[in-house]
Structure to design on (839 residues):
């Protein structure tokens, strides 16, 4: 049961106080304005301008102009960066109160850029070397040249990230352990929108409405992000940022084909009108492939008339509703933008997608059929303020659970396929309404301290059509609200030392309020070099399933409930056997030490070690009471002390969720980029993780299963714009080898060993400037080395929570399949041939 406490009142008072601070600070501030050009004096759009040591920043518009407001009076160094140009630094920029310092910044061309600017680490632009977290930014050029036609493929080389290839077009990701088949530890954001499915808490992922051709960048923050993003960012944040019509005008069309009947068509059109005061963009994509496949067989018990009451049903024996491995998606977005001058704008956008395919759960697999996702969003921003309001919606279409369909098919042979599907579907309509306001300002008298603060409101409205959530009990759609306020203070004590303090207060309808603090001390021994130590406390909130599941008639004797009020379990004599408290968020406290630096204009290092302590893991569905065990029979009572009975009035076998266990984790994430020549870059990543301590009740080990490789690494090379044919064209390409150490995976019915594997990806492209076109060929898993799954297996160490295989033989070859997810198909070679036109 949720309680009201003094911290909640203090949190809202702090928000009101924060609203009063910016005006006073702005009175002592000035502006930095100017133009960014190339050496010939032509304007450069999309350049990132950062006031060093403060966090103030902006992007240049299509005319190269920029404006940074709210800068406290003083003298500063200003850094200007742009993809394809060398970073420029302007010294001794003097800002006077109420005035604008004018700059003109010419930039020198360079085929590669080291470092760059990120947004998601502090929710405002800053140099990646200054970001107080492990973060990777994938720019538009890298996305355009990535293997295949989905942005997810570019995540393979992100340091610290578990990348799991599930199919031709779908992947799963996680960071720093405790993965599952139904994982929601990584928060997904799209242009400031929370991109999750409110009915189950999963990230939108492959259901996104945004085509790859409209992505300006993808940022991946690894590690706790709750201090700025809330309780769904326990293990990290993935942020998708789309292209602005002014910064990325013109027409783009991309057509790709490949093996397994892969086909993909993407288009984007963007531009400005009314003297540049208005901008627009539209984009769309259709993608289809015959995915890799396998077949699961379900054992159905208690079937009348069957020998021994047992029937085995394979997924490909279900008639017209047999498993269909066709992966298909159609998506589109559109935006209308009003530019107000001074880097201020108002943006109205919307998007929609429809998807088919196969998805995994903890109890089987789902046939995704006409799954829908859409959004409408209104944003307004200037250099100091940001306002965001949006609505997203996900609908299940005619999707159904294949395992439940097999059960219904075995028990009801005379029902029609549509009737069987309706018995095994999970109808859902999940709508998320949200609004956010954010502000940043500086306080000159506090050492030019930079403050970023914001407030969010979110309302989830979810319907299961009165079938599998508590709307079945109440007759009303679920309505769950949550509010959050956050702030970050960055104080540069000197050019060499700065302190970052952040915190977020979240008030959720279903459980007690939570406070997520963050602290980081940054040492800057030289330009573009930072040493940091940090502390984060983050939370993983229970999902709608875990709080509002309600199926009192899963079978004649089994009932499933969410847990918001707690349960008591008693024996036949009425003595209490166990007590389960209402669910509360899982806690993650992480200490981290790291280094980021650019050395000799050629080498970029990003290294981090971390130590994490987890508490109150959220369990999977667990039987808490069973009245059919004779002398040891147990009975469940709800939080009000009332006995739980099913629709027939019989005490059932009761399943629910609860908190349990502790764990200690330590690890290392590192990345290196070396630019051997202006056109050739070499890169590598390495991640290590060790589950050092686990405390968990016997029989509940699944909740604390690491489910991640203890070692993974990548090595790669990138070729960019190497002139050939006397400058008539240029070559581009990439080479990546990815190694994942084998590990034990346990999530529901998905249990087993994922063998060690290594895969080689290759891409080659030829750009023809006079035709505004690029021809590319990409091959994923061209050459694979993987362990033989039939070889006898030994585990080391013997602890079941940490076990990983040590003695399997390894076989290498071309077009060799390998396994990346238990109970999902082996992944083989994927070939993509595409033509891209951009003007």
């Amino acid at each position: 049961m949720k309680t009201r406490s003094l911290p909640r009142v203090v949190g809202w008072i702090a928000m009101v106080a924060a609203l009063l601070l910016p005006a006073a600070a702005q009175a002592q501030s000035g502006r930095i304005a100017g133009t960014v050009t190339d050496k010939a004096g032509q304007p450069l759009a999309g350049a990132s301008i950062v006031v060093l040591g403060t966090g103030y920043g902006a992007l240049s518009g299509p005319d190269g102009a920029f404006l940074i407001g709210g800068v406290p009076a003083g003298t500063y160094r200003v850094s200007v960066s742009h993809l394809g140009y060398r970073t420029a630094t302007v010294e001794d920029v003097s800002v006077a109160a109420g005035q604008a310092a004018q700059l003109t910044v010419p930039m020198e061309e360079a085929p590669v850029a080291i470092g760059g600017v990120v947004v998601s680490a502090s929710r405002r632009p800053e140099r990646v070397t200054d970001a107080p977290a492990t973060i990777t930014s994938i720019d538009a050029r890298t996305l355009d040249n990535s293997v295949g036609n989905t942005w997810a493929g570019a995540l393979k080389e992100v340091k610290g990230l578990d990348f799991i290839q599930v199919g031709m077009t779908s992947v799963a990701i996680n960071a720093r352990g405790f993965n599952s088949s139904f994982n929601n530890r990584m928060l997904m954001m799209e242009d400031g929108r929370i991109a999750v499915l409110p009915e189950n808490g999963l990230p939108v992922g492959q259901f996104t409405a945004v085509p790859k051709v409209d992505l300006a960048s993808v940022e991946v923050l690894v590690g706790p992000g709750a201090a700025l993003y809330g309780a769904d960012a326990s293990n990290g944040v993935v942020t998708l940022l789309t292209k602005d019509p002014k910064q990325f005008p013109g027409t783009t069309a991309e057509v790709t084909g490949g093996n397994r009947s892969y086909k993909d068509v993407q288009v984007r059109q963007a531009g400005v009108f009314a003297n540049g005061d208005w901008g627009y963009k539209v984009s769309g994509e259709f993608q289809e492939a015959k995915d890799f496949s396998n077949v699961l067989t379900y054992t159905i018990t208690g079937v009348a008339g069957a020998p021994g009451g047992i029937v085995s049903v394979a997924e490909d024996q279900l008639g017209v509703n047999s498993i269909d491995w066709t992966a298909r998606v159609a998506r589109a977005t559109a935006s209308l933008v009003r530019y107000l001058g001074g880097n201020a704008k108002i943006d109205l956008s919307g998007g929609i997608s429809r998807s088919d395919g196969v998805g995994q759960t903890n109890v089987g697999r789902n046939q995704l059929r006409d799954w829908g996702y859409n959004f409408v969003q209104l944003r307004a921003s200037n250099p100091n303020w940001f306002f965001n309001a949006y609505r997203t919606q996900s609908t299940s279409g005619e999707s159904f659970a294949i395992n439940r369909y097999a059960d219904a098919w075995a028990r009801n042979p005379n029902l029609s396929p549509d009737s069987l599907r309706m018995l095994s579907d999970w109808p859902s309509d999940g709508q998320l309404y949200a609004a956010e306001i954010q502000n940043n300002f500086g306080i000159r008298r506090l050492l030019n301290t930079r403050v970023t603060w914001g407030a969010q409101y979110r309302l989830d409205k979810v319907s299961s059509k009165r079938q599998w959530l508590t709307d079945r009990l109440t007759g009303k759609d679920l309505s769950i609200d949550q509010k959050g306020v956050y702030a970050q203070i960055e104080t540069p004590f000197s050019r060499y030392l700065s302190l970052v303090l952040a915190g977020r207060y979240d008030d959720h309808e279903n459980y007690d309020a939570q406070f997520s603090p963050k602290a980081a001390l940054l040492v800057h021994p030289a330009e573009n070099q930072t040493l940091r130590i940090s502390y984060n406390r983050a939370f993983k909130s229970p999902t709608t399933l875990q709080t509002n599941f309600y199926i009192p008639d899963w079978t004649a004797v089994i009932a499933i409930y969410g847990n918001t009020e707690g349960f008591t379990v008693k024996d036949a004599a009425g003595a209490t056997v166990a007590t389960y408290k209402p669910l509360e968020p899982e806690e993650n406290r992480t200490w981290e030490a790291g280094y980021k630096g650019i050395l000799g204009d050629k080498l970029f290092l990003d290294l981090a070690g971390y130590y994490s302590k987890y508490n109150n893991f959220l369990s999977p569905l667990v039987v808490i009471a069973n009245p059919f065990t004779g002398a040891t029979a147990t009975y469940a009572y709800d939080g009000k002390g009332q006995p739980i009975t099913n629709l027939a009035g019989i005490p059932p076998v009761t399943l629910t969720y609860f908190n349990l266990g502790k764990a200690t984790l330590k690890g290392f994430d590192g990345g290196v980029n070396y630019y051997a020549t202006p056109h050739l870059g070499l890169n590598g990543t390495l991640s290590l993780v060790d589950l050092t301590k686990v405390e968990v009740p016997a029989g509940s080990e699944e909740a604390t299963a690491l489910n991640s490789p203890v070692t993974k690494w990548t090595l790669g090379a990138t070729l960019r714009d190497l002139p050939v044919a006397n400058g008539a064209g240029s070559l581009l390409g990439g080479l990546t080898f990815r190694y994942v150490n084998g590990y034990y995976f346990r999530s529901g019915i998905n249990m087993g060993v994922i063998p060690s594997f290594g895969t080689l990806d290759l891409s080659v492209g030829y750009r023809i400037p006079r035709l505004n076109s690029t021809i590319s060929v990409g091959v994923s898993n061209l050459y694979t080395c993987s362990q033989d799954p039939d070889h006898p297996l030994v585990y080391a160490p013997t602890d079941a929570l940490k076990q990983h295989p040590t003695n399997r033989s390894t076989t290498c070859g071309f077009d060799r399949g390998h396994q990346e997810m238990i109970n999902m198909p082996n992944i083989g070679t994927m070939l993509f041939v595409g033509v891209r036109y951009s003007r």
The helical segments are 6-26, 140-144, 226-229, 402-411, 417-424, 471-474, 544-548. DSSP finds seven helices and 51 strands in the chain. The CA atoms of residues 634 and 720 lie 67 Å apart.
